[in-house]
């Protein structure tokens, strides 16, 4: 799946921290989902997330790529820790 990583966030005091001063982001929006993991019998295991879902993922999960100048993460469902509510 492809995930658009959340941008720099404001601190509680409203100060924006540059990306270099933050830990690697851990949340993002699912941009694209594949067919799922291929099983031994050739069928696919269903994916638990959908496009548009906000997800929480492991700190060093995924592989960073650039598509049309936009930084995205390619990751598997095993690197997703959970989904967050749409308003979160």
> How many β-strand runs?
8
Looking at the structure, the CATH topology is 10 Kd Chaperonin, Protein Cpn10, Chain O
Sketch the major β-sheet.
Answer: 6 strands, antiparallel
Write the element-wise H/E pattern from the N-terminal end onward: EEEEEEEE
Global structural class: mainly beta
- First CA to last CA: what distance? 21 Å
Average pLDDT score: 81
Strand order of the largest sheet: 6-7-1-2-5-8
Q: In which range does the helix fraction lie?
A: under 10%
In what range is the share of β-strand residues?
35-45%
Number of domains: 1
Q: What gross morphology would you assign? A: globular
How many DSSP H or I helices? Answer: 0
The CATH homology group name: GroES chaperonin
The CATH class, by name, is Mainly Beta
What does this structure look like?
The protein has strands at 2-5, 27-32, 37-38, 44-45, 54-57, 63-67, 70-74, 80-84. It has 88 residues and is mostly beta strands. The chain has one domain: Roll (10 Kd Chaperonin, Protein Cpn10, Chain O), CATH 2.30.33. The chain has no helices and eight strands.
Write the layout of secondary structure elements.
Layout: E1 2-5, E2 27-32, E3 37-38, E4 44-45, E5 54-57, E6 63-67, E7 70-74, E8 80-84
Antiparallel strand pairs: 1-2, 1-7, 2-5, 3-4, 5-8, 6-7
